[in-house]
From TrEMBL:
It comes from Anaerocolumna cellulosilytica. It comes from the Bacteria. Coiled coil: none annotated. Residues 28-47 are annotated as: Disordered. Residues 1-24 form the signal peptide. This is Uncharacterized protein. Keywords: Cell membrane, Lipoprotein, Membrane, Palmitate, Signal. PANTHER family: ARABINOSE-BINDING PROTEIN-RELATED, POLYGALACTURONAN_RHAMNOGALACTURONAN-BINDING PROTEIN YTCQ.
C-alpha cells in the first residue's frame, strides 16, 4: 500500500506555466523578485537560525549535515545515465533545496537482519548516527541508556499541521507509544489500518448454483459445500477446493491473506494477540477457551472436505496458484485481495470475485483486532545539535506525498523528486508515513471524483492515479470491452471492496501489548512452533479439538506462564 506519486499532472502544469511565461507569467518573474528582495530584520543570521530551529518550514541559513544509518534494498537503482548516489540524489536534493540539510551515511544496510545488526553494533560502540530507524524494543533500550534526544520541543515547534493531522487519524496512538514519562523520544512511522477481514467468493459460481449471499457461518458452510460437490468451475470430480488456508498460520496475522480470523473473533477469540480480559489483565488469545469454538468449526469443515485437503503441505505460492488457476472458490483476505486475484482475472475475465464481511455477531457487526499503530521509530542521537531536523525533513516528505505540494510545486527539483518516487529510484533517507484510514480516504476521494463531486486534482497524486485507472475500467465496461487487468484490480480494490470496508461498521479490539519481554528472545519461538504444530494437527483432524487443552497446559509450562506475567508487568 505504499503510496507512489504520479507525474502526469506536472506535464499539464508545466504546459500551463510555459504558456503563462510567454505572456509574462510565473517562473521568470518569481526568480527576479526573489533576487531583488531587500534584506529586512529577519535576514539577520542569528534570527534565521532561530527561525529554522523553531518553525516547520524555514530553511537553515547554512548547510546542516546529519549522519544517518540508511536502510536500503538489494535492488536499488538510480536514473539511467546519472551519477547519483545515496547521498546525492532526487530525494536529498529536495531536502537540501527546502531546508538546506544534507545527509552523510554512516552505514547502509539491507532491511531486516542486516540493518538490525548494524544498529546493534552502533549502539554497542556508542557511535550511533544522528538519525536512524529502530524497532520498539531498541527504542526503549536507547531511552534507558540516555542515548537519544527528547523530541518533545522539536515536535511542538516544528511539526506541520499535516503531520499532526495524520497522527490524529489514529487518535494519536502512534505518538503515545513513542512517549515515555511525558517526553516524545521518536517520530513514529505509522501503520495503515488493514480494515476488516473479508470472505472472498467466486460470485460467478454462486450465480451458476443460485446461491444466496452469506451472512452466517452456516451460510458459508453451505456455499463451500455446493462449490466442492457441484464443481461449478468444471475442474473435474474431486478437484475443486473450497476454502484455502495458510498452513504456516491460519489465524492471528494482521493484514495477511489466507487466514480465518473472522471465524475466531465471532466466538470472542483473538488468536496471537495480547488482549485484556474482563479484569483488565493481559492474556494471550491463542490459549483462551474461546479458541476451541473456532477450531471446532474449521476442523469440521476440513473433515467434510470443505477446506483444502492438502493444506498441511501447501506454501503461500501453492495457494495463490490454486486461486489463479480457478480451482479455488473461497478465501479470507482484506480489501486488497484483488492485488492477489489479478492473475485469475487475467487468465479468465469471466471470473467474478465478490467480498463479504461475515459472519457478524449478535450486534450485526464483525469484530476485528487492530494491529501495531507503528511500523518503526525514527530517533535522534543524544547531543545532536539540530534534533528538529528530523521533524522538519519528515514535514517535507509528507507535503509531497500526503499533502498538496506535488501539485503546487512545479519546480524542476520537485519534478525530479516525484520522478524518483514514481520509479522507486534510490532510497529516501527520511521518508514519511500515511493516515491510519488511508484506504478509506482513498475510496472516499476517488468515488467523489467519479461522481463529479470532487476535482480530481483535489486529492493526493497517488489517489489521482487510482482515480484515472478506475475511470478507465468504467469506460471499458461501458464500451463492452475487457478492462485491463490493472484497471480491474484498482477498481475492485478501491471502489468495490474499499466501499464495503468504508460502509460496514465493525467492532475493533485493541491489543494491549506489541513489545517483547525479557524471556521472549529465549522462549517465544519455541512456544510459537508448539502452537502452530498443535493448531495444524487439530485443523487436519490428526488431533481432536480436545487436544487444545493439552496444548494449553504444555504452553503454560514451557514458558507461557512466565511470559504472561512479564507482559502484565510491562503494561502496568
Amino acid at each position: 500500500m505504499k503510496r507512489k506519486l504520479y507525474q502526469k499532472c506536472f506535464a499539464l502544469t508545466a504546459v500551463f506555466c510555459l504558456t503563462m511565461g510567454l505572456l509574462g507569467g510565473c517562473a521568470p518573474k518569481t526568480e527576479t523578485t526573489t533576487k531583488n528582495t531587500p534584506k529586512d530584520s529577519t535576514s539577520d543570521v542569528s534570527e534565521q537560525w532561530n527561525l529554522a530551529k523553531t518553525t516547520p518550514d524555514a530553511p537553515y541559513p547554512e548547510e546542516v549535515t546529519y549522519t544517518i544509518g540508511l536502510q536500503v534494498n538489494a535492488n536499488v537503482t538510480f536514473p539511467e545515465g546519472s551519477n547519483d548516489t545515496a547521498e546525492n540524489n532526487g530525494y536529498t536534493r529536495l531536502y537540501k533545496n527546502k531546508l538546506n540539510i544534507q545527509n552523510k551515511n554512516i552505514f547502509e544496510a539491507v532491511d531486516g537482519e542486516d540493518y538490525e545488526q548494524k544498529v546493534s553494533m552502533a549502539i554497542t560502540t556508542g557511535e550511533i548516527p544522528d538519525i536512524m530507524s529502530v524497532d520498539y524494543k531498541t527504542l526503549k533500550e536507547l531511552i534507558d541508556n540516555d542515548m537519544i534526544e527528547d523530541l518533545t520541543e522539536s515536535y511542538n515547534n516544528c511539526a506541520s499541521d499535516l503531520m499532526k493531522e495524520i497522527y490524529a487519524s489514529n487518535d494519536n496512538k502512534s505518538l503515545e507509544m513513542a512517549t515515555f514519562d511525558g517526553k516524545l523520544y521518536a517520530i513514529p512511522v505509522t501503520s495503515i489500518s488493514a480494515g476488516q477481514e473479508m470472505l472472498w467468493l467466486r460470485g460467478d459460481w454462486m450465480d451458476k448454483l443460485n446461491l444466496k449471499e452469506p451472512e452466517t457461518i452456516a451460510d458459508i458452510e453451505h456455499i463451500l459445500q455446493e462449490f466442492v460437490e457441484k464443481d461449478p468451475g468444471n475442474n473435474g470430480a474431486g478437484k475443486t477446493v473450497g476454502l484455502v488456508l495458510n498452513p504456516d498460520i491460519y489465524y492471528g496475522g494482521y493484514a495477511q491473506a489466507y487466514q480465518a480470523n473472522n471465524i475466531f473473533t465471532y466466538f470472542g477469540a483473538y488468536p496471537e494477540q495480547w488482549v485484556a480480559d474482563k479484569d483488565g489483565n493481559a492474556v494471550y488469545g491463542s490459549v483462551q477457551p474461546e479458541m476451541k469454538r473456532g477450531l471446532e468449526v474449521l476442523a469440521d469443515w476440513y473433515k467434510k472436505g470443505l477446506i483444502d485437503q492438502q493444506v498441511a503441505i501447501r506454501n503461500f505460492d501453492d495457494i495463490t496458484a490454486l486461486v489463479t488457476s480457478g480451482q479455488c472458490g473461497a478465501l479470507f483476505c482484506g480489501w486488497w485481495a484483488p492485488y492477489t486475484l489479478e492473475s485469475s482475472y487475467a487468465l479468465n475475465n469471466e471470473v467474478d470475485w465478490r467480498s463479504y464481511i461475515v459472519p457478524a455477531g449478535e450486534d450485526g457487526k464483525v469484530t476485528m483486532f487492530a494491529g501495531d499503530p507503528n511500523q518503526h521509530y525514527k530517533v535522534v542521537r543524544k547531543g545532536y545539535e539540530h534534533p528538529e531536523v528530523l521533524v522538519k525533513a519528515v514535514n517535507v516528505s509528507l507535503n509531497y506525498n500526503q499533502g498538496t505540494s506535488s501539485y503546487t510545486d512545479t519546480s524542476d527539483i520537485a519534478k525530479e523528486y516525484l520522478d524518483y518516487v514514481n520509479h522507486a529510484y534510490g532510497v529516501d533517507p527520511i521518508g514519511g508515513f500515511d493516515y491510519y484510514n488511508a484506504a478509506a480516504l482513498a475510496y472516499e476521494h476517488i468515488n467523489e471524483a467519479i461522481e463529479g463531486k470532487r476535482d480530481p486534482q483535489n486529492m493526493i497524486m497517488y489517489e489521482n492515479t487510482l482515480y484515472q485507472s478506475c475511470q478507465k475500467y468504467l469506460d471499458a465496461i461501458a464500451k463492452g470491452e475487457k478492462a485491463d487487468s490493472t484497471d480491474w484490480l484498482n477498481y475492485n480494490a478501491r471502489m468495490v471492496s474499499s466501499k464495503l470496508m468504508y460502509e460496514t461498521p465493525v467492532n475493533v479490539v485493541q491489543p494491549v501489548f506489541f513489545d517483547q519481554t525479557d524471556s521472549m528472545p529465549l522462549k517465544w519461538s519455541t512456544l510459537q512452533k508448539m502452537e502452530r504444530e498443535a493448531m495444524l494437527k487439530i485443523l487436519t483432524n490428526e488431533k481432536s479439538v480436545d487436544y487444545f487443552d493439552a496444548f494449553v497446559d504444555e504452553w503454560i509450562k514451557a514458558g507461557g506462564e512466565q511470559i504472561t506475567k512479564e507482559v502484565n508487568e510491562a503494561i502496568k
